[in-house]
């Protein structure tokens, strides 16, 4: 019978924990036993709904009652009216995959029966109670060359404790002749068909679905992210680590980054359902892509600065810092072109993050004809250190900024600018 078809939906929930390139991942998802239990619980709810929608085929047979001849019977219009799934579990199998099992399940099927014996014809309604259903199936998880997950069933077993058939009708003596035979045949038939149905559905329908899963997502007009699987899942006794590539790439021309992902070592945590681990590789490939595409450029003009600011982007304001600017280009607006000289580099260490961008600030005077006159170029080296910790369940941290300007007059320029800003703040407080 096709009762087993609905069970395949439950087993599909593990398919996304599979994993081709055996390089280090840039992103790791850890699904713990608690997470698997929760997924199974939600899957069982959906499974029960799916079972009620299964269309069951007719069941017929012939029973020899000896000198009385043969009795032909048929069960039709069968629908599942009740489902109980009291016990179920999912267990990681180290270095292989998952073991899913259901035990003590109960299903009731209602329908019509029809019996023909010689010139006697009788029909009526019936219900079949399938008791003590136990199903166990192993799932071997892997990946194909495209980095999509694969899944294969193994070690499927099924047992049904008992089948009870209750039929209404007027010729009870005839029904009693083959009643036990029908129950035995139904039980054996279902036991023999459930595992083949489950394994065939996993091997064909579910595997075909997995082959259509996307492994990249477009971020914008420049980049996309590759989250294909880099290797088989690391299956331990209490969790599964899913290894994802976690790499940004240029949509127009994909190139290999000039660096490799570092080795990621996750602590043996399992208190939560899911853990996520991200390496610096994910962020650094993003910086590499946008730097290579020339997208890390930002233009700053005076209309972008608050009107109440004491410092504006014009030659008069900057003339206080660099007198020659206001003399050569009096009373003109300015434009700052801020760009990175190289891709920003993020370094992740236990307890802190360090971002080290190298940038250029090119200043221009905006001439009356809207053309630009170059004024000066600042080359800026910056180290941003973020210290991260967890306090009372909250992520806390601090930032430290270390920068240097590569111009001979840079130090004096910054000192004069800070003094001017400080004086402006004091004047506003007096007002």
Automatic annotation (TrEMBL):
GO CC, alphabetical:
extracellular space
Kindly list the places in or outside the cell where this protein is found, as annotated in its UniProt entry: Secreted
Identify the stretch annotated as signal peptide in this record.
1-19
* Any one Gene Ontology BP term: defense response to Gram-negative bacterium
| Written domain comment of the UniProt record | The N- and C-terminal barrels adopt an identical fold despite having only 13% of conserved residues.
Phosphoprotein among keywords? no
Q: How does it assemble?
A: Monomer. Homodimer; disulfide-linked.
Family that this chain belongs to: Belongs to the BPI/LBP/Plunc superfamily. BPI/LBP family.
**Record-linked Gene3D superfamilies:** Bactericidal permeability-increasing protein, domain 1, Bactericidal permeability-increasing protein, domain 2
Q: List UniProt keywords, sorted A-Z.
A: Antibiotic, Antimicrobial, Disulfide bond, Glycoprotein, Immunity, Innate immunity, Secreted, Signal
Name the record gives this protein:
Bactericidal permeability-increasing protein
Can you give the residue ranges of the Lipid-binding serum glycoprotein C-terminal domain?
268-431
Disulphide bonds annotated for this chain are 156-195
Q: Name one GO molecular function term.
A: lipid binding
Residues in domain Lipid-binding serum glycoprotein N-terminal? 30-253
Q: What does this protein do?
A: The cytotoxic action of BPI is limited to many species of Gram-negative bacteria; this specificity may be explained by a strong affinity of the very basic N-terminal half for the negatively charged lipopolysaccharides that are unique to the Gram-negative bacterial outer envelope.
SMART domains xrefs: BPI1 (SM00328), BPI2 (SM00329)
Output the superkingdom of the source species. Answer: Eukaryota
Q: What is its main location?
A: secreted
Family matches, as Pfam families = LBP_BPI_CETP, LBP_BPI_CETP_C
């Amino acid at each position: 019978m096709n009762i087993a078809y609905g069970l395949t939906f439950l087993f599909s929930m593990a398919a996304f924990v599979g994993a081709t390139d055996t390089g280090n991942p840039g992103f790791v998802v850890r699904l713990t036993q608690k997470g698997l239990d929760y997924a199974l619980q939600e899957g069982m709810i959906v499974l029960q709904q799916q079972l009620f929608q299964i269309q069951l085929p007719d069941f017929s047979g012939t029973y020899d009652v000896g000198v009385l001849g043969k009795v032909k019977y048929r069960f039709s219009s069968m629908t599942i009216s009740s489902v109980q799934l009291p016990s179920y579990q999912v267990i990681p199998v180290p270095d292989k995959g998952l073991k899913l099992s259901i035990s003590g399940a109960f299903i009731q099927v209602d329908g019509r029966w029809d019996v023909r014996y010689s010139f006697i014809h009788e029909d009526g309604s019936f219900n079949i109670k399938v008791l003590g259903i136990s199903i166990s199936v192993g799932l071997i998880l892997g990946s194909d060359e495209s980095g999509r997950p694969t899944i294969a069933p193994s070690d499927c077993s099924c047992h049904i404790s008992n089948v009870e058939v209750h039929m209404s009708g007027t010729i009870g003596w005839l029904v009693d002749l083959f009643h036990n035979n029908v129950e035995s045949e139904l039980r054996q038939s279902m036991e023999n068909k459930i595992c083949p149905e489950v394994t065939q559905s996993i091997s064909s329908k579910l595997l075909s679905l997995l082959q259509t899963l996307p492994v990249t997502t477009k971020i914008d007009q420049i980049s996309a992210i590759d989250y294909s699987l880099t290797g088989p899942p690391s299956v331990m006794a209490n969790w599964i680590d899913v290894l994802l590539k976690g790499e940004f790439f240029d949509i127009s021309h994909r190139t290999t980054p000039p660096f490799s992902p570092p080795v990621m070592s996750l602590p043996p945590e399992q208190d939560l359902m899911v853990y996520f681990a991200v390496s610096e590789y994910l962020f650094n490939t993003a910086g590499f892509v946008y730097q290579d595409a020339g997208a890390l450029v930002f233009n700053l003009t005076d209309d972008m600065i608050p009107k109440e600011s004491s410092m504006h982007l014009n030659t008069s304001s900057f003339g206080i810092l660099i007198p020659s600017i206001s003399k050569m280009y009096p009373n003109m607006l300015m434009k700052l072109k801020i760009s990175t000289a190289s891709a920003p580099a993020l370094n992740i260490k236990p307890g802190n993050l360090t971002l080290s961008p190298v940038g250029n600030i090119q200043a221009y005077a905006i001439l009356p004809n809207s053309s630009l006159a170059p004024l000066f170029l600042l080359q800026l080296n910056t180290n941003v250190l973020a210290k991260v910790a967890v306090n009372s369940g909250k992520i806390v941290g601090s930032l430290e900024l270390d920068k240097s300007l590569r111009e001979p007059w840079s130090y004096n320029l910054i000192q004069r600018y800070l003094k001017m800003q400080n004086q402006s703040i004091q004047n506003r407080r007096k007002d």
